[in-house]
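New to this. Help decode both lines:
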Amino acid sequence: MNYDELFNIAVKSAENAYCKYSGFYVGASLLTADGQVFTGCNIENASYSMTICAERTAIFKAVSEGFTEFTAIAVAGSSTNDFSEPCVPCGACLQVMSEFCNSDFSIILADGVHNLSDFLPKTFSEESIK
């Protein structure tokens, strides 16, 4: 699967977002090492701290199905149905990505392909708690 296809799946996944509070639709599509795709969308809650981002939804779905090796994630977000501007993952999502992915993990946004290390150059990891 090429990265354009993965990004288009993320845009399609944004249609399922439950975002009645912010009106900001986010979709993600996660590519596993063996070529499977897991999708996610943001799911908001009146208690804002209980909201979950699209990226973590996709990752948690994949992990719950036994997948922990990933090669790329595409993220698309918009409040106007125009997904041409990049929607950068938040710090919590980047930290979750760092649990399962190397620093060269590909993050596909509307403006191109980035590495995890571009957004999170230093991570809190297993070594941090020893």
About this structure: The chain has a mean pLDDT of 97.
